[in-house]
Every structure is written in structure tokens, then in C-alpha cells.
């Protein structure tokens, strides 16, 4: 039996190019057989499968066999198994569980090459389970000396952190340690990992800044690592301004001198992120970027533009001087470069040059194709509408641009262009006349209707129809307009556009009627209206209009779109009503008609709907009616099926709110009632109301809908009263002043009570990013341990040991309690109770733990010559001796010789200098030195301070400088920590001949209480509690000095005072020291 | 970090695929297909960077082979491009004037090399010499 070798397989596949799949399936069948054979056959089979897998075939069925091959002992076989596993295992592979143990075994194997394979594999197939189970083993592996293993272990740590973020805290110290590794490649790997980690939560890694800074300044030739370090600093600098200052020099250096462009680019990026307030540095960056953009290499050009774009976001005007350069890039043949160049345009456009820039961009529009064309359209609109049209001074020009954009057939930005039309015409009153004329042209353009698709260019017609209708006072030939409204081909347009057509044809007609009947129509906002032809609209014109309408509306009243049909019928009914009543009522009916549409319209903020405040007491989540009782028809109606796009960001916004419906709804109701009197009126009403609520095209109190505007629009509160809009005066004089002044209405409507803040838009913290949420700056706690997976028997054994230890402690404690019991027979009862407690909690604390002395250097002298600080420590085993350590700094600008520190003359008699570090000798200017003295205090009762003398001989003068150093010696240094049993205490107090003193300190409204007092006495004076009354208001204290003086205190918390009754066996001690110390400890301010 | 490295020929046949971010098989196939379509359609004068979904593809063509790397948008594009070149140099030195067939018949060695240069989506060893030494050592193991 001959099996195919790997080479045979590969050749075979190459020879069966035409029926590769069949050949491979045949091979897979063979391999399935081979996998049943011995390990050697299996190995070859698995290797072949790996190749087949690479070609895109499924080999997950062989996972178990792969694990088998992984666990062989032979390196070459193992390697094949591991490769197959790395390539084909993923999170869903069930045998990964089996692989866990194999990987751990190989990690700990004596053969480093097995660990190498296991690490490679783990880096590819790491799952959360594997990460949790193996994190600890990786840390163990990081103790290795082998560089190539260590490199891998460090890098794989990143994968572990990604999959099992809990590992970060316990494992981080080890990773941090590797930054100091002497082997550069290890440092480099650690930097890589930290760089990735820092992107998620930079604050954690700020403490590493000094180390990283050192690496940055000490590395010269490893550009790979330098890039990562510089990138890492880009994450850190925004959180630490001081770091940014420090980085300016090294980065400037690299930018000026580095031969590596990739490093240069990285430095520039970091400067942009972290040091963008440093203007000279930014200028340097821009200069460098210019050379990149001018470079022949397309890649550099692209990156240069990309970085320039980043600068533009911060300093919008900084890049404007490179306008020509960027505009030239628009001609580049590579689309990605053109993209980047387009992105830069907003930064270099001004009021003056927008026409030039636009001309250039429009040139490109003609030759552009596909998505690039769309991008250009997007950019044109973005550029022009920026800052609510801040660059545009001629809006007729902008309308022309938009009209030009409307000629583009294949675009997906129809809605965007439409919303621009609406926005411009609403905001800029002076352009309405011009806009309306252009819109009529658009309505007549057959191309726009040729291939209607949702969001296609036909959407422009929506805007056009609305504008013509809304501003029909500028329409001089209503018949013409109506004819274009009601062309038969309109019926192929999307439903929402047709609906708008219907309603706006009525608006045009109403205006024509009004004008023909000589209604007073005042155009309050625009005196420049071209009304010269207005006289032509006569009663005949109206009749003509009426005829056009009635004859052409028919097809729409039968429209398959309910909304269109409804509107067409509505218009039809109004017209019927008009024809019936016009003869009898004459003018009044046209007045009625026009009054339907005379409400002023304002732009509505894009977020207005969202910001309607919820009235107090209204719970939106609560059912208003029981859902089961609701009519299914109603719920269907609730779907906003007529809203284009139907989402919250819809550009066509509805200004109707529920309350405003009341205005005109009776009107509609009455017209409907005539037709459906036999129907169930009540149900009709409900249905209608719900439809009105859901339907954005329904006539509401304000009569019409308003439109959206660009996101940049400022927010204004809703005006309390709406001024009524009156329509055109016939015969008003035309006076067109040049240049035309365009006033932009920048306000938008917002609901009353809307909050100004945009908090809802703030970037939300990514809650899924568990790794980013871990704080490394908190100290490790007992919970921060890595999961260790051990054998069951080990765990059981450990549990038993732990139980045994607890038992032992309990026995000991009980025994101790018993011994104390014997000692203090008098307090038998009480001790028994406490012994029980002690046994449960911890061994009885008979000897008090020695107090930890934290070394703190205290400033003693700081003059023009010296800065001296000192620290007092106890000398072990010598109760009467103290060690005084000094730090001395020569602050003067001359050298000192014969520097000596001794106990001052006056104190020499009372204390005894036991030992010192000798003469200090010469101290150079600015240098520092340390010195210590060990002093024995023979009489502690008067010594609350000790004076030393520092003598020095400055080089410039013969006079010796003497600096006295007075050091306060806290009394606590002379107290020996003693824990005294109660009975002994009583004995001492009775036996000894003691002096009594007392002190009262106000508790300052309970700020001072017994527990604070006892805590302070223990911490600061080393005085222990002997007994505390259960009420917590009285306690006795005891201390012993190093010269065997007893100090006993009874402290009471009573009537707003803490009273200390003190007894000592040394009267001077009490009067001179103890009272002072207590007053210092509890300052009664 | 690098999300994946692909080596494909002009016909779109995968010669090497290393995935550092877990994708399932269907997605891997789809990605390979898309990447090939993107890089194969680009002219030689174009940049070596393509924006791809939320990431960036850095690719480079050597003879009939496309070496593509999918990286985070925050990564340094030139760094990735140089890393690709480093990898190709190592291949060239190891096989001695490497060609597509070398990669096809020794695909497992190519994977070994890639594991020496990159690991867990990071460039691990930028020294060509060290990589070659390691490969030499591994090849001589029993």
C-alpha cells in the first residue's frame, strides 16, 4: 500500500487544476484511511491536511488526530501536529480542552524546543479558557534564560491579557521587569506588548514613562523598537503634559536626523497627538510632511496627506498655505491619495477661495466614477454647508451648484442634496425666489424621473416639489407648475415623493386663487420678490388650474400607495368643495384656502425629537392600555411606513407634534364624515387619530412640515408665539440691489424644556473592553492571583493542611487562654469568654507587636550654607540609646573643609555620645553627605530636645561657620511597648508611690472619641490599653519608660471632654513631659 | 497589531495564511477572497495601503505574489511595509532566490519562518540573521 507523500499531494493538486475539488476530496478520503494507521502515517496525513486547509477546505473533523500528533515525543512530528493545530483550531474547536494539558506539559518540558512549539501554537489558538489555565505557566516560563523562549513568552502574554484580562494585574510586574532586561530583543517584545496595552488604558502605564524615556534616549539603531516606543508615548502624552515637554527635545532630534522615514512619520504622529500646542514643533512637522507629500513615492505622499489631515483637525488653518500642493494631489491617479486630498479641503477653504476650490473639485466630478463621485458630492456639500454656510456669500451660486449635482444620475446622495435645497431655501429668505424658479425647472427635468430608486437622485424632486408649493407666492405661472406636478410619470416615483407632490399642488392652486381674487398677500420677509408678472394670474388662470388638477388627479386618487391616494383624494375633495362654494361665497373661499398654509416655518434641530422632555409623572415604559385589548389594526398603523428611511436620523423631519393636531383636524373630520356616515364613527375617529399621529404627511396645526438642516446648526429655543406668514402683495416694486445681501437664518427649533447639553452624543466608554478597564496602579490584593490548575489530589491535600493549621491555631489559642487564666484567677469569668472569642479569631495577642518605625527625615536647618535633615531611630537592644541620622547638603557655592557634627557644649553633660560616623571632612559646593550619632540618654526626664553643632570651614574665609541643629526628641522614643494584664496594673497603681496629675481636652463635638484616643496613644506614644469599659467611655492605659518609670492613665470621655488622670512614678516626668506630649497629641483648638 | 498575513498569487491561490485574530473558516475564506480582489486590482503606481473595513491592508507585490497584512488603523503603515519586506528578505535568504514553488512545496517551513519573525500579531524578531540561525538550528533537530 503506497500513500501519497506531501510532495505527491501538492503535485497532484497542481496537475488537477480543472477538477481540483474532486481531487482533493479523493485525497481527503485517502487521508481518513491513513489516519487510522500508525503515528508516522498519521503525521504525514496531518501535514497534508494542513496544506489542504490552507486552500480553504474544512479539516475540523481531524482535530482529535491533530492533538494525537501534537503529543508525540518526536520533535519533527510534534512540530507538524502543532502547526496543524495553530492553523485549524479556533474558539469553537472542542478538542482544545484536550490540548490544554499537552501545552502545559510541553511548557514545562526539559526540552526547550517543545516549549517553543507550544508557545507558537498558543499565540494562535488562545481562547479564554486556555488563557486562564495557562497564564500561570507562562509566568513560570518567563524565568527562563533562553532568549528565544522568553521573547515568545512575553509576546504571548499579550494574547493572554486579551483573552483573560484578569491576568493583567498579577502578571504585569513580571512584564514590567522585562523592560529592564539586558537583552534588547526582550525589551523590544515587552515594549510591543505594553504599546498595545497602553492603547486601551494609557493611564495605567504612565508610571513607566521614565523607563520608556530612558529606552528612547538610549536606543539608536533599533528603529523597529523606537517606532513602538514613540507610538507608546503617543498614548501616554495626552494624559501627562509634563511628559510631552520632556519629549520635545528627543523627538525634534529624531525628526531632524533620523534616516528612517517610518520613524520620522511615527514621531510626527506622536507630536500631533501629544505636543500639538508646541508651535515650532508643529511647523517642523508640517515642513517635513510637505517633503513627504512632494515625494515621488506614492506611499509617502499618502501618509503625508494623512498626517496633515490630523494636524488640520487641531490647527484648521495651519495647513492652508499648502493649498496648491493638496489641490495638485486631487489629480493623482491613485484614488486613496485623492481621498486624502479631498479630506483636507475643509481646512484650506475660505470665503474668498471657495469658488476656486469648488471649480477645481467640480472638474473632477465630471470625470469621476462610482463611489469616488459620491465622495466628491459629499465633500462639496460638507464644504459648502460648513458652519451653516459660513463661507458662502452668494447663495444663487450654491443653488446652481446643487442643481448641477442633481444632474448626476448615479448617486446615492439624493436625500443629502434634497435636504440642502430645503435647508438653504428655508434659511436664506432672499434666495427663495431664485430657488423656486430653479426648482420648477428641476420638476420638469425628465432625467430625474427616469430611474427612480430610493435615496437616488429622484429624492431631489421631493425638495423641489415642496419648495415650489411652500413658496408658491414666487410662482408666476401656476398652470405650468401644476402641469409639472401632475405629469403622468410622477406616478412611478417613490410614494413619499408623490405624497408631497399632491399636497403642494394644492398649495400652488390656493395661492393662484388668492392672487386672482386680490387677497391681501404681504410678503414680509422679502421686498425683492419678482412680482412683475403677478398681474397675469386671473380668474381664467385659476379655472385653467382647476381643470388641470381635476383631470390629472384621477390617476393619483387610484394610486396603489395609500398615502398618495389619501392625499390625492383630499385635494380632490377640497377642489370639489371649492367649485361648489366659489360662486356663492366668492372671495371668502379663497381666503379660507390660503389660510391653510400661512404658518411660518423654521428649521428644526436634528435632535429636537429626542430632546422633547418627558412630562413629569409620565412613565414611557408603562402600558397606557392593556396591549391585549388593543385593536390589531391600530398597531399596524403605528408603523411609520410613509417616512422615508424611517429612522431617527431622517433628514425629512416632521415638526408636527401631537398637540398641534387640534388646530385643523376638525376640518378634515368634517369632510370625511360626509362620506362615511354609515360607518362606525367612533372606530373611524380612533383610527384616524392614530394615523395622524404616525403619519408625517398629515396636515397638522401648523399646516406644513419643516425640514432638517445640517448637523452643525446652532440650537435656539422654540419661540413662544409664531408670527403669521402673509403671502405676496401684488404690484410691489421690484428693487434688486447688487451685491445681494444674503441673510442666513441660523436658528433651529427645539422643544421647550430641551436641555442644551449634547451629552447623549458623548462617546460612550466601551464597556466590553474589559482589558481597558483594569487599573494597574492599585496595589495587588489577595484576589489578584492567577488561576492555577492542579491535580485534584493536590487540592485535597492542601485543603487538609489548611484545616489542620486552623485546628492547631485554635488549640494554641485555647492553651494560651488557659495559662492566662491561671495567672489571673480573679478575672476567671471574663477571660473564659474572651478565650472563646480569641480561639475563633486569632491566637491571643499576649505580646504586643513591636511598633514599626517608618523612617522619616525631618528638616532641621535650611539656610544659605546648609540644608540638614535628620531622623531618629531606636538602637536595637539598647533602650536608652537613640541613633540620629543626618543628611547634610552644602548649599553654598564654596567648598567647606573640616566639617564636623557634634553634640553642642551645653548638652554634652547630660547626654553621652556613644558612637558617631566621625568627622565629615571636606564637602564640595553642592554636594551632600550623611552622618550619624548614637546618643545615650542618661536622664530622660528633662530631655525633650537636644542640640547639635555643625562646624565648617569655608574655603574663602578663615572664619568657622557654626550651625546649631536643634532636634526635638519625641518622648515615644523612651517608652517601651508594654502590654500589662489588668491585675498587674492594679497592683502597680496601688503599690507605687505615684504623683497624680490631670488634663482635660474638649472633644470638639465628638470629633475626638475613645477609640481615636486609644489609637493615637498607641501609635504616637506607644501607650497600650490595659482595660476598656464596655461602654467605651472609660479606659485605662499603661506604659513603662526605658528607665522603669511607670505611667498609668485613666481616660474618661465625659461631658464633652476627654479627661486624662495620670499617675507616674517620676514627678518631673509628669510635669515637664507627659502633659506637653498629650497636649501636642490632642491640640485643643 | 497584525490581524492576519496572507500570501497569495495573482490567481488568488493562498500560499500562506496566518491569522492572529480568530475568524471562522467561512470568514477566512471570504476575507482571502476580498483581499485578493482588492490588491490584484491595484496598479503598481498606487500606494501600498488600502483602507479595508475598519482596518488597513498593507500589501506589497513580489513577482507574482502578493504579501498582504491587515493591521489596525493606528499602526504605522511604513513599519508594516518594512516588516513585509523583512519577511521576504528572510525567505529569500533561506531558500536562496525564493520563488513561488519554494513556498508551495515547503509551506511548513514558511510557517516556521513566519513564527520566528512574527508572533501573536507583533513583529518579534527584526534581525534576519537571528531568524536564519534559528531556522538552521530547527532544521537540524531530529
From TrEMBL, chain A:
A GO term from the CC aspect: endosome membrane
Transmembrane portions of the chain: none
Domain AP-3 complex subunit delta, chain residue ranges per copy: 676-777
Keywords: Membrane, Protein transport, Repeat, Transport
Major site of localization recorded for this protein: membrane
Subcellular location: Endomembrane system
GO biological process: Golgi to vacuole transport; protein targeting to vacuole
Keyword Protein transport: yes
Superkingdom of origin: Eukaryota
Compositionally biased spans, kind Basic and acidic residues: 651-661, 676-690, 746-764, 820-832
SMART domains from the UniProt entry: BLVR
Region (Disordered): 606-707, 723-764, 820-849
Pfam family, one: Adaptin_N
Family listed: Belongs to the adaptor complexes large subunit family.
Assembly behavior: Adaptor protein complex 3 (AP-3) is a heterotetramer.
Protein name per its UniProtKB record: AP-3 complex subunit delta
UniProtKB/TrEMBL annotation, chain B:
Keywords: Cell membrane, Coated pit, Endocytosis, Membrane, Protein transport, Transport
Molecular function per GO: clathrin adaptor activity
Subcellular location: Cell membrane; Membrane, Coated pit
Annotated ranges, domain AP complex mu/sigma subunit: 1-140
UniProt cross-references to Pfam families, sorted A to Z: Clat_adaptor_s
GO CC term, one of those recorded: AP-2 adaptor complex
CDD domains: AP2_sigma
Topological relation to the membrane, as annotated: Peripheral membrane protein
InterPro entries xrefs: AP_complex_ssu (IPR016635), AP_mu_sigma_su (IPR022775), APS2 (IPR027156), Longin-like_dom_sf (IPR011012)
Example GO BP: intracellular protein transport
Segment forming the signal sequence: none
Keyword Cell membrane annotated: yes
PANTHER family named among the record's database cross-references: ADAPTOR COMPLEXES SMALL SUBUNIT FAMILY (PTHR11753)
Stated family: Belongs to the adaptor complexes small subunit family.
Protein name: AP complex subunit sigma
